[in-house]
Design goal:
Helix content is 40%, strand content 14%. It is of the alpha/beta class. The protein has a single domain, classed as 3-Layer(aba) Sandwich (Rossmann fold). It has a five-stranded parallel sheet with strand order 2-1-3-4-5, with helices on both faces. Bound molecules: manganese (II) ion. The site of manganese (II) ion has 5 residues, from loops.
Length: 162
């Protein structure tokens, strides 16, 4: 089976953040994989070779920085772009993430357009859209209110999500 949609691995243990990131990415035509566990993230990355990894830094068993270090040390996964997505917002946190092997840094709460722009700088959306999903896509009515609202805000520009 040929996969046209680009795949993004979401490494995030906060369920609300997972739902938000999945909604934004899947409605933009990307496929997602997800785990909240660092060791499982390494297994998923090596087994599936995603086109991009979104890496939370604060994870329960192993920090996202350690996961990143291990992925960079493995020939199979060392070229996969990694974006740190973290609530740590101090400048040295960004420096630490970039020095630790991440390619970019996004602080929570995210701005949806800024987030998508950063994602697209690594994984162009037109490739994701080759899968056939139109954009902009109206949120499904059975999506919970918060997620649907987040995505429906997209055409209006900058907004921030807690
Ligand atoms: Mn976390």
């Amino acid at each position: 089976m040929i996969h046209y949609a680009k795949r993004i691995l979401i490494v995030e243990d906060n369920k609300a953040d997972v739902r938000l990131l999945k909604d934004i990415l899947e409605k933009s035509g990307y496929e997602t994989l997800q785990t909240g566990d660092g060791l499982e993230a390494i297994d998923l990355a090596v087994a599936n070779l995603p086109d991009l990894i979104l890496m939370d830094i604060q994870l329960p068993r192993m920090s996202g920085l350690e996961v990143t270090r291990r992925l960079r040390g493995d020939e199979r996964s060392r070229r996969i772009p990694i974006i740190a997505v973290t609530a740590f917002a101090m400048e040295w946190h960004e420096r630490e993430a970039l020095d630790g092997g991440c390619d970019a840094y996004i602080s929570k709460p995210i701005s949806i357009l800024g987030f998508l722009n950063t994602v697209e700088s690594f994984v162009p959306r037109f490739l994701a859209l080759a899968h056939g999903l139109p954009f902009p896509q109206r949120p499904a009515t059975d999506v919970d209110g918060r997620s649907a609202l987040c995505v429906s805000w997209l055409p209006h520009g900058f907004t921030r999500i807690a």
